[in-house]
Amino acid sequence: MRSNVNNSIALTHLVSNKRQTFIASLGVTVGIALYIFSNSIVVGVNSFTTANMFKTIPHLRIHKEDKLSAPIRKETKAHAYLISNPKITTLDKTINNPYGLAEKVRQFPFVLNVAPQVDVDLFYVSGVTQINGMASGISVVEADAMFKIQETMLTGNIQQLSTDLNGIIIGRGVAEKLNLRLGDNISILSALGVNKILQVIGVFATDNKAVDDTKSYINIKTAQQLIKKEPNSITDINVQLANPDSSAFYAAQLQPVTDYMVEDWKVAHADQLAQSKLMGTMTPMIAYSILLVAAFGIYNIINMIISQKMNDIAILQATGFNSRNILQIFLVESLVMGIIGTFLGVLIGGALVSIAKGIYVGPPVGYFPIDYDRSIFISAIFFGLFVSLFAGYFPARKAAKMDPVDIFRD
Amino acid sequence: MRKEQILATKNVGKFFYNPIQFEVLKDISFEVSKGEFLTIIGKSGSGKSTLLYCLSTMDTDYSGELYIDNELVSGKSKNQLAKIRNKSIGFVFQFHYLLPEFTCLKNVMIPALKLGKYTYQEIEESAYQKLKILGIQDQALKNASKLSGGQQQRVAIARALINDPAIIMGDEPTGNLDSKNTAIVFDIFKQLAQEYGQSIIAVTHDTDFAKASDRTVEMMDGKIIKDQNNIKL
Question: How many CB atoms are located within 10 Å of the residue B42 CB?
């Protein structure tokens, strides 16, 4: 009953000054709409770049880490000898029992896909021209499920690689530099000196020049031959996660299963992560500043309402309203402004995102990289309401502390 | 027969410190009985309004003691005082001080809604009744700002009556009214005191108004210089 009176007074104030209410709310609307829009861009761009990145990079990579030789120590009573000549002692990079390990990893509920892989450093040779590069020996079904290789193929079919031991799928840059087309032969020379002539059965383009200029896909068995290893030798086990954002956490969960190194993409590609982090900080900052301006708008208007209503406040106090009631009246007013403003802001922000989503910006990006994210809308609503309450609090407190006698005497 | 006391002060004193230290109330002690129509008169600066605000519990910055309904109210917290005002004191001011965005009816209802003792319907009904007593029930649903000065003042009185307070205080309640409306307000006060046993304490400049009341207290320089009973026996 008691709070009803306060609320009904607050609402009457708001309704009888519709224009004022609307303008104060509009400040919040603009702030919230821009907050949603700019954060959606951050989410869109981030998901675009990570999606692009995950075309070639696995979420987790299990591989054998290089070990350094331990120094030789010998202690006598008089002297201690230390012979140190640090050298990599890992001569064989293959993983022991790779398919057993892959099976174990696949049992984890957060693992979507496991793809064994053999990487080979090699040269693409055409006459006197040599291009430095890297071939990934893949088992086609798993690798395509993980990296969506088929989606990047300009010509050819990835499935052909699963049966064709002499086939190779090369990057667009390699194809251009060596003037190769579908069906042409290419000579490759692995770092271990194995020479092979393979047939180009496909060309892919990831729009990442560094990848397209060096990388190729070959059958995993061909790769094993190129590193002079027996069949079933695997150098890398790639793992795809349901939620790549928490890769470090999952890497830690997988590590106890194996002695080999479980490396998450955030460690392997910290530079990319830093870039998206920077953007994720900068853009919302702009939105926060706009919200701050909106807060000043509400502060000003509540302040104005209060100075217009000094007499009303005094009479309310005289008739038995205490300072908490007065505080509540004006907090409710600013909260209602915040609710109206936030509601409109969410509508407008959502509309802006959906409009931007439909704008075609051309390849390689395609449509404008912007994405709905529920958490943005939730935090926008939270901020809108919080900012309005915060902005209303100071003038409301001033009103609550006012001495009615001062007003009646003047 | 000794009448029951409703309000009393003991040695109330007050200083103003701005712009200079100035003793505005000096050692004021008096009592008001139930159903008494009291007027306070005095020249400007005599301290009569200041005294009224001390009595109203809105001004707490005084020395001495104030009793309302035999209960010491000096030193109580602001929230407690707000409750006392809500329940036991009705106010009528010179400049009406209605809430302009609300209808007359709502203006009258607000203190009762605040008290929260009755349901909304009961309060609405009793607000209509108060407006009827004051002869302005036909204006009930108009916005307060649309009424004439005399009508507004009557709405303000209706609001002061809504919680059936023991005391009604007025600061120049007729100061802004013509003689016809002044007479109406006076008759209402008289009626309230006689028929409903409510005490009236009104500060006024109007000597005719004061003379017609039950008792007149005259102040000068912060002291009561005359306290006379106007009722002819």
Answer: 23
Q: Which helix (H) or strand (E) holds B226?
A: strand B223-229
For residue B138, the 8-state DSSP code is: G
Give the burial class of B99: count Cβ atoms within 10 A of its Cβ; 0-12 exposed, 13-18 middle, 19 or more buried: buried
Residue A343's pLDDT is 94
Three-class secondary structure of residue A269 per DSSP: coil
> What one-character DSSP code corresponds to residue B224?
E
User: What confidence tens digit (pLDDT) does each residue in A230-255 have?
Assistant: 888 888 888 888 888 788 888 888 88
Query: Which residue in the set B87, B91, B99 is minimally distant from A312, CB to CB?
Result: B99
Please check whether residue A339 is in contact with residue A387, taking contact to mean a CB–CB distance below 8 angstroms: no
Quote the ipTM score.
0.86
Cβ neighbour number for residue A349 with a 10 Å cutoff:
27
The CA distance from B108 to B86, in Å, is 13
Whether residue A409 and residue B93 make contact (CB cut-off 8 A), yes or no, is: no
Instruction: Report the DSSP pairing between strands A195-204 and A236-241.
Output: unpaired
Secondary structure element (H or E) that encloses residue A172, with its range: helix A172-177
Q: Is B74 on the interface with A (CB under 8 A)?
A: no
Does residue A256 have a cis bond before it (omega within 30 degrees)? Answer: no
DSSP conformational letter for A255? G
Q: Does A35 touch chain B (CB under 8 A)?
A: no
Using the Cβ of A408 and the Cβ atoms of chain B, whether some distance falls under 8 Å is answered with yes
- Tell me the nearest-neighbour CA distance from B190 into chain A, angstroms: 22
Digit-coded pLDDT (tens) for A192-226: 888 889 999 999 988 788 888 999 999 988 888 88
For residue B114, give the nearest of A5, A314, A404 by CB distance.
Answer: A5
Directed axis angle between helix B179-196 and helix B149-161, to 10°? 10
Q: State which amino acid sits at residue B205.
A: H
Taking the CA atoms of residue A74, residue A76, residue A81 and residue A86 in that order, the dihedral angle to the nearest 10 degrees is 10
User: By the 8 A CB rule, do A264 and A60 touch?
Assistant: yes
- The count of other CB atoms within 10 Å of the CB of residue A141 is 13
* Cβ–Cβ < 8 Å for A115, A139: yes
* B163 contacts: CB under 8 Å, gap ≥ 6: B86, B87, B90, B111, B112, B115
Longest distance between any two alpha carbons in chain A, whole Å: 103
Mode of pairing for the β-strands spanning B71-72 and B63-68: antiparallel
**CA trace torsion B13, B16, B22, B28 (10° rounding):** -20
**Residue A315 CA from chain centroid, whole number:** 56
- pTM of the complete model: 0.72
CA–CA gap between residue A323 and residue A175 (Å, rounded): 79
3-state secondary structure A31-79: HHHHHHHHHHHHHHHHHHHHHHHCCCCCCEEEECCCCECCCEEEECCCC
Whole-angstrom distance, CA of residue A144 vs CA of residue A169: 13
Q: Which two tokens stand for residue A407?
A: 């007003």
Vertex A97: Cα angle to A92 and A100 (nearest 5) = 150
DSSP type of residue A371: -
